[in-house]
């Protein structure tokens, strides 16, 4: 069994103070095999950081991509969230939404770039999220296009408010997004209602493409669960990291 080699990675836990949110925010940082502070690495930022590591197994998947698929080593930053206020931070109608976007772009990014040798151009920076985490990635890119233009969206929760904001955009030719949604997500109950995620993602894809965005889109058998997203994560990561 060769898998243990994938476990030989470093995961650092950090805490930063957010002026925008007026609280501490925890981060998990994956440093790849052979990590060297003299080098400079692409970076993947993940919403729901704890779940990406625990249920998405992103650190193990990253090791496999680097050691087996010959992907250049990259750093992963998981931004943890308090589930009790997740919708308030991730949804555009949330009471903490603006503050969270500002925290991410104006506090977390500079903190990571000050402390770790990550590359600093939008083409070397990916943001990833599942469900509402996917849609908040899109909102981050729309709000801070100089920082983000590459998005991984796993069953993005593109509620009507998100689609309305997207519809106001005119030119998204700078944006590249990798979207996946499960065909069994047509009647999924969230804390704000029951949604057809398949139709929601199809509509969002159409909005994006009509504004010039580059969209890689796939529908697969799957439910609104980490068991589905974990299987799809390598393909989504390869889309941006294999070029």
From TrEMBL:
Which species is the source of this protein? Paenibacillus donghaensis
Q: Which residues form a coiled coil?
A: none
Classification via Gene3D superfamilies: alpha/beta hydrolase
Would you say which domain of life the source belongs to? Bacteria
Q: Which InterPro entries does this UniProt record tie to the protein?
A: AB_hydrolase_fold, Esterase-like, Mycobacterial_A85_antigen
Protein name (database record): Enterochelin esterase
